[in-house]
Amino acid sequence: MTAKTKRRVLGTVQQAPTTANGSTKLPIQSGEHPLPVPQPVMTSPSPIAHTGPDSLICPICNEKMISVNQLNQHIDDVHLGDSNSDSPPPPTAMPTTPQKLDSPGVLDKIIKRNTTPTKKIINLDLFEGSKTFSLSDSNGRDANSMSPTLHQKPRVSRTHWVQPSGNNTCSMAGCSKQLNVKNGIVNCRRCGKLFCNSHTDFKVKLRNPNPGESIPQYDKDGIWSKCCEECFFHKPDIVAGTAVNAVDLTSSFRQLRQTRQEENQLIIDKTVKKFIKLVNLLTEFYITSQHHREAPRTGLSSFFQTSTLDESLLIEKQREIVGYENWQDQNLVQYCYICLTKFGFLLRKHHCRLCGQVVCDDKFSERQECSLLVPLPMILSKLTHLNYSVQVKTHFDEVLHSHDDLFSVRMCKNCKDSLLYDYKLKILNEQHDPKLQELFSYYNQLFVVKEKIHHQMAKYRREMDAVTKSKSNAALESTNRFKDRVMGSFREFERILTEFKTIYFVQNSVSPQFQKYGRILKGINQSLILFLQESLMEFKDLNNRLKQTENEAMPKQPEVEIPRLTKKQIRELRESLMVMNEQKFIIEKLINDVTKQRKFDELQPLLNNKLEITTEIDRLESELGEFGFS
Amino acid sequence: MASSTDTTRFAQFKLVLLGESAVGKSSIVHRFVKNTFDNFRESTIGAAFLTQTITLPESKTTIKFEIWDTAGQERYKSLAPMYYRNAHAALCVYDITNPSSFTKAQDWIKELKKQAPEGIVICLVGNKLDLSEERQVDEQEVLQYVQELNHQENNVLWAECSAKSGEGVLDIFNKIGRALPVEEVINGASSRARQVGSRKPGVDLARQAHSPQNSGCC
């Protein structure tokens, strides 16, 4: 019976420990296991896989395991294949330690138990994470060669897998690792290609392919499967997540801006037109009142005092100009439309004579002034060229210099702003003119040179690339000349920049007299410096490359100057040295011979000569220095 | 003991052979020293050293030539200065069948005049006289050249010889021996000559002690 034991799992007891006397005790105490107690059929002690919480032993091969996980993995890896073998090696005598079966964790893990003595399978489903007991009898599947897990755990189809053929490399781009036992031979569960271990670290949920689909598909309810990087990043949710979300809003922004500007312009136009009408009206009134009353200097008071009719007429006319539909009923208005303050006893309501809205004129509070009684001449002096009536134009000077209160108009802040919008713009432009002109002329100069350098740099780069490829001397020469030209441009740029800086800057900050243009100056300065830094860096880089190419192309020329000796000299000196050494050898041999032959009279010249040669060799060697042979 | 008496005087001179390669320098030397000739002499490597003594009967002088036979190949050109630097005589050898070798010999003479010590006895030697049928260097031409040189206060001898037949070889050395400043050397004008002279009489034991050392190091 022991021989037939087949277990998968957990080194916990999967078989009741049998005592020596043959009786089997099932140490499951809780009654929750409706398992038939396995009958003690055999007399030999059954293997006990579990020796304690710390040391686990594989029930099949007795290998020691550290953790339950490891054991499970081990059984999967090592013993899955021989599930059919009839007789797994019977475990040798093992220490039968008390089983820890009473621990609920262990009990929980016992999922499957074969009651027949011939085949006992306890399937502990650790990895599926299912905590429920799933009991199944695997008896009926004896014929099935597959391991029990295959039935228990659905697996994604493997039909599409690429079969390893001796000489595979990892399909991951740029990996090219040889696939072997060491690097791993792993199929991506989705695309089926072969990868090494390190490139199948990803997991996706897959389901089996439906008819018509060749490979498994992503499915949220699928099975976690190993996959390659590519398949992982093709996961629908990842694809969705990394999709470019940017939307180009430039055109819509432009449109919006356009409409806004047009609206503004419309408002300005309207205001200006109303203003013209108002001026016309008031001038007419002013002149007629002057003519009729002969009271030139006390306009308003006399006007208001003398004729309320005129006043009401004036207001009526003003309403007409504004437009009756725009002339707000002041009884309906409770809040100033600009500052949104509630009108009250102290806060009077006023009508803007240009837009007809009701505004406050609280000039004493900290609130901004929403409306003002503006003396018309003040505005007229600023807007002299509007299309006023003939009467206004003829009396323009008179009107302009009148200080008559009659000639004042209440207008809200908004209307005033839009009325004077063009004027302010103009003033703004005019104000900056003299100094700004100079500034801009500098900027223009710099800009021209900058553009020039930009183009030249591009050309230099191109030429450099060509030179690096061709290495022809002519190209080198022309590039060198071009380099000088670029250099010249840089010098010009530098000159203008220094000039610019000496005028507008004092020690890297804008000089006080130009503080007004601080921002623009700083901007220009910064951009120029940035440009200079970037271009100079590239320029330097290109120059280095040019030099390098030059050295490569003409190695002789630079070496003529750099080293102490020319190549020819070195060659000659070496040759001499070699000859000298040879000669020394010859002489030494001669000395030897002469000494042997006892021709001492010949010895002296030879010794002298040897001395000479030695000094000569020394001289040559010292001359050669680092170029010598040693 | 053999100083300036009437008995045979002895002087030692350094002689160097210069010239283009394969003109027969070594052959001349061998003819002179060993009275042999080898048809297939290998070209010299570096510089060979040989000695030969001649006696000038008229002045009762024995002259010992320390002959440095330099290689003519361009490669060994750098060796030559070392040998002619303190030589007493120089043989500029050319091949009478080879004009370029004569030009080369002329170059050597020029170089010697520039670099060599003053008073060096230069002898222009035309070799291979046995091949006079194939002569290409005209005698007259050479003579003219030599005369020109001697006009400029140069002491240049000229001779032709054949190392193969031995014709004229000894004459050359006799000529040189006569031209050499024997008296000066013997009277100890040059320290080197005196040294050489003092070498002659006895054996210096200290020298012997040096020699094995030298030979031992190779």
TrEMBL record, chain A:
<keyword id="KW-0479">Metal-binding</keyword>
<feature type="region of interest" description="Disordered">
    <location>
        <begin position="77"/>
        <end position="105"/>
    </location>
</feature>
<dbReference type="Pfam" id="PF01363">
    <property type="entry name" value="FYVE"/>
</dbReference>
<dbReference type="GO" id="GO:0032266">
    <property type="term" value="F:phosphatidylinositol-3-phosphate binding"/>
</dbReference>
<feature type="compositionally biased region" description="Polar residues">
    <location>
        <begin position="12"/>
        <end position="27"/>
    </location>
</feature>
<dbReference type="InterPro" id="IPR013087">
    <property type="entry name" value="Znf_C2H2_type"/>
</dbReference>
<dbReference type="GO" id="GO:0006281">
    <property type="term" value="P:DNA repair"/>
</dbReference>
<dbReference type="InterPro" id="IPR017455">
    <property type="entry name" value="Znf_FYVE-rel"/>
</dbReference>
<dbReference type="GO" id="GO:0003677">
    <property type="term" value="F:DNA binding"/>
</dbReference>
<keyword id="KW-0862">Zinc</keyword>
<keyword id="KW-0227">DNA damage</keyword>
<dbReference type="GO" id="GO:0008270">
    <property type="term" value="F:zinc ion binding"/>
</dbReference>
<dbReference type="InterPro" id="IPR021565">
    <property type="entry name" value="Rbsn_Rab-bd"/>
</dbReference>
<feature type="domain" description="FYVE-type">
    <location>
        <begin position="330"/>
        <end position="420"/>
    </location>
</feature>
<feature type="compositionally biased region" description="Polar residues">
    <location>
        <begin position="137"/>
        <end position="150"/>
    </location>
</feature>
<feature type="region of interest" description="Disordered">
    <location>
        <begin position="1"/>
        <end position="33"/>
    </location>
</feature>
<feature type="region of interest" description="Disordered">
    <location>
        <begin position="137"/>
        <end position="157"/>
    </location>
</feature>
<dbReference type="InterPro" id="IPR013083">
    <property type="entry name" value="Znf_RING/FYVE/PHD"/>
</dbReference>
<keyword id="KW-0863">Zinc-finger</keyword>
<dbReference type="Pfam" id="PF11464">
    <property type="entry name" value="Rbsn"/>
</dbReference>
<dbReference type="InterPro" id="IPR000306">
    <property type="entry name" value="Znf_FYVE"/>
</dbReference>
<protein>
    <recommendedName>
        <fullName>FYVE-type domain-containing protein</fullName>
    </recommendedName>
</protein>
From TrEMBL, chain B:
<feature type="region of interest" description="Disordered">
    <location>
        <begin position="197"/>
        <end position="218"/>
    </location>
</feature>
<dbReference type="InterPro" id="IPR027417">
    <property type="entry name" value="P-loop_NTPase"/>
</dbReference>
<dbReference type="InterPro" id="IPR005225">
    <property type="entry name" value="Small_GTP-bd"/>
</dbReference>
<dbReference type="Pfam" id="PF00071">
    <property type="entry name" value="Ras"/>
</dbReference>
<dbReference type="InterPro" id="IPR001806">
    <property type="entry name" value="Small_GTPase"/>
</dbReference>
<dbReference type="GO" id="GO:0005525">
    <property type="term" value="F:GTP binding"/>
</dbReference>
<protein>
    <submittedName>
        <fullName>GTP-binding protein of the rab/ypt family</fullName>
    </submittedName>
</protein>
<keyword id="KW-0547">Nucleotide-binding</keyword>
<dbReference type="GO" id="GO:0003924">
    <property type="term" value="F:GTPase activity"/>
</dbReference>
